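Good morning,

Attaching, inline, the backbone tokens for the sequence recovery test we're adding to the shared suite. The designed sequence is right after.
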């Protein structure tokens, strides 16, 4: 089991927080985070990254908490924190009226619990020596729940179709309500997950599945790698593209989006056994620097038309980057904020977490991948969920209050 970055003793929270933030602000994958995340948590961080310290003690200033309240949920807009835990719950499904009450109680309780972690918390386990725990969260509702309760949800919200090659475990998939917690360390995740689960049970919900994930320690300004060794998260939409493809249209969903989650087991050993040149052809990018095979730098645009003198495409027809690129899809882009997971020997891989206005975007791409992605011999989709990620709760309001209007 690899040491997770947030547990490394040489990685104190203040340093890792600044590093991640700077990385996210610099990477093109976080153009969106720079535009939106700056609004939710970066102001106080400016002081920290400038190296300012407590004048009397010389100690670094305490970590600024990440506000829970805001137009969009912080788990979408804040630069990715290095550890995650996803939790899914089911409501009792006795009657629509009872489930409405349960959902309302759950969202009220979670607003209280999650907002409290951004301030002085009465739970001693969340008291740290260097400020409030750094935590973000996002809450989403499953398509079946939205239908059962006739909720005001995005038009395209629906479960995904079955794809060729899927090996989905229903016990790890779906759910009425989904909570994603992200934090600087597993301690915070464990404590807040427990508090959220207790609140959910009190509202009548039952835990369905939970899944932990992590990111590697990554140099400031760099994109994190996945367990195949490739930089993952390079080609994400900027704010303008996100307005069109990630956030809902003007109206009740403009600060909302849809999460598509896939737990994808990877045969990392078999992939690692390929010569690096072969690996690069599978992906269409170079493992070393993340640059497309047609470019020299990570953020160069892949040239899908470039050919070798013998007429073969430089980025092969089955390369992952060709099949997932927006060119094949009318410019459509999704915001990927994936994590790696390791659940024991032979069960590690990618927690694919992508946000989009309409889950049909995922379906179109996954249909192409399932048919001919060169990655297919190395990956197996083992769980799946879709969730309508609610708009944020501005100060003084409760998550999902628009649902009852
Ligand atoms: C274990 C499975 C997967 C791995 C290891 C993987 C890895 C990667 C890597 C390394 C890149 C290139 C760097 C980047 O832009 O982030 C990439 C790009 C991308 N992937 Fe995946 N991916 C996986 C599954 C998927 C799935 C299931 C989808 C959606 C159905 C997807 C959609 C995308 C998209 C949209 C891009 C950006 C393409 C572009 O705009 O150039 N990936 N992926």
């Amino acid at each position: 089991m690899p040491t997770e970055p947030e547990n490394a003793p040489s990685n104190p929270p203040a340093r890792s927080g600044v590093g991640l933030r700077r990385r996210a602000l610099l990477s093109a994958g976080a153009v969106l985070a720079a535009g939106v995340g700056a609004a939710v948590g970066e102001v106080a961080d400016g002081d920290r990254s400038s190296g300012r310290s407590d004048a009397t003690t010389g100690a670094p200033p305490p970590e600024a908490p990440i506000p829970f309240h805001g137009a969009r949920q912080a788990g979408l807009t804040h630069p990715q924190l290095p550890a995650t835990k996803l939790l899914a719950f089911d409501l009792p499904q006795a009657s629509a009226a009872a489930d409405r009450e349960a959902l309302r109680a759950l969202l009220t309780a979670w607003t209280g619990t999650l907002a409290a972690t951004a301030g002085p918390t009465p739970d001693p386990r969340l008291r740290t020596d260097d400020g409030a725990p750094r935590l973000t969260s996002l809450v989403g509702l499953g398509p079946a729940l939205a239908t059962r309760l006739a909720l005001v949800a995005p038009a395209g919200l629906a479960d995904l179709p079955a794809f060729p090659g899927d090996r989905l475990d229903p016990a790890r998939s779906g759910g009425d309500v989904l909570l994603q917690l992200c934090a600087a360390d597993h301690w915070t995740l464990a404590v807040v997950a427990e508090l959220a689960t207790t609140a959910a049970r009190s509202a009548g919900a039952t835990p369905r599945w939970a899944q932990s994930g992590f990111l590697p320690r990554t140099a400031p300004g760099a994109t994190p790698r996945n367990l195949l060794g490739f930089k993952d998260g390079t080609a994400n939409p900027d704010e303008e593209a996100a307005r069109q493809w990630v956030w809902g249209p003007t109206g009740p969903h403009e600060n909302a989006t849809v999460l598509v989650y896939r737990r994808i087991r990877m045969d990392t050993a078999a992939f690692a056994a390929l010569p690096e040149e072969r690996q690069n052809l599978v992906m269409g990018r170079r493992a070393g620097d993340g640059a497309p095979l047609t470019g020299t730098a990570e953020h160069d645009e892949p040239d899908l038309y470039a050919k070798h003198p013998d007429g073969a495409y430089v980025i092969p027809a089955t390369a992952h980057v060709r099949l997932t690129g927006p060119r094949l899809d009318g410019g459509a882009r999704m915001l990927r904020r994936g994590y790696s997971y390791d659940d024991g020997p032979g069960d590690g891989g990618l927690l694919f977490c992508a946000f989009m206005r309409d889950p049909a975007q995922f379906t179109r791409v996954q249909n192409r991948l399932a048919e001919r992605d060169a990655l297919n011999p190395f990956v197996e989709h083992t769980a799946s969920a879709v969730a309508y990620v609610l708009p944020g709760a501005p100060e003084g309001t409760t998550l999902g209050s628009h649902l009852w209007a």
